[in-house]
Each structure stands twice: as C-alpha cells, then as structure tokens.
Amino acid sequence: MHLTFHRCTSSDLEQLIAISRETFEAAFKEANDPTDFQNYIDFAFDRDKLLSELENEKSKFYFVKEKEELVGYFKVNEGEVQTDVKDFDSFELERIYVVESHQGRKIGAAMLQNVLELAKKEGKQYVWLGVWEENTAAIRFYQRFGFKKFDTHPYYIGKDRQTDWLMRLDL
User: Which of 40, 62, 73, 142 does the annotation list as catalytic?
Assistant: First the structure.
C-alpha cells in the first residue's frame, strides 16, 4: 500500500465537502436522530464554513490517496482555532476518516502516524483529540498509539448532547 498525503487548498473544496459528508454519515448516521443528524451535517460541512476553515492557516486538511484514489482525510488545528484546549504547544486532531470501502487496511494508522510526524516537525509537545465515548473501536485505536483520556467535553449533533472523551499523546 502506497499512500500519499496532499494538503488541501480551496481548489479541493468540492471534494472535501463530498468526503466529509460521506465518511461522517457512514460512521454516525445510524446512531443519531435523523433530523438532528441532518442539521449537524448541513452546519458542519457547509460550503462557506469549510472554505473559511481551508483558508485559515491554523487549520489544515489533508487528503490521503492510494494511487490516485481518495481514501481518507484528516484535519489538524493549531493555537486559537483548536476546539477546546487552545494550547500553542499542541496539535488538535479534529477529524480523521477513512472511506468505508478502505477501512481495515491500516490506512487510519498511517494517517495518524503522519499527523504525529507533522506535529513533531511543527515543534508541538503533544497531540490531542475528541472522540465520542460510544465509539469504542476508535477509542481502542487511539489507545494502541498511546493516547490517554484526560477529560471530557460535550459535543452536539443537532440538539443531541453527546460526550466526547478528550485524549492526549505526549510526543
């Protein structure tokens, strides 16, 4: 498996919207109220919102391709654009998704390794993330890399208040 990582620009917007919606729906649609879920999708993956995030130097999206096929993406945040911690010595891994047809092939592990390398190159002391407390497979995945729970925070899908574990890995 040969993966390439491409930092997204505004010219990637349409593809970013499509993969964001596709992977989030595949991961969480069945576990949520349909109205709340659709409202969340419409907000979180809105064209103007994603374009604004793409144009912010403190938020970085990366496409992951196998050969020429888009198989996943991730997003990292620095400094004040982090969703919770806002520590300038850290990277927030806000999103990491592999398309459903490519899961189970260690692509997620390669993506996470790439995130850790990016954080080290930027001189960050640690990487942190939020993961839904009911997403036990993802929690186990992060724990295998050494991430440890340090707190929780609320996460809303529409009006539905859920709880995310905040997990951290010191570099």
Answer: 142
Phi first, then psi: give them for residue 147, nearest 5 degrees. -65, 145
Are 56 and 78 contacting, i.e. CB atoms less than 8 angstroms apart? no
Report the alpha-carbon distance of residue 157 to residue 79 in Å, rounded.
25
* Stretch (H or E) spanning 144: helix 136-144
How many Cα atoms within 13 Å fall on the side-chain side of residue 29? 9
- pTM of the complete model beyond 0.85: yes
- Dihedral angle sign, alpha carbons of residues 57, 141, 131, 100: positive
62 is catalytic: no
Token pair 């997003």: residue: 75
Rounded-to-integer distance, Cα 13 and Cα 10, Å: 5
Domains (ranges, CATH) in the chain? 3-170 (3.40.630.30)
pLDDT one-digit tens code per residue, 63-89? 999 999 999 999 999 999 999 999 999
φ/ψ of residue 118, rounded to 5:
-60, -45
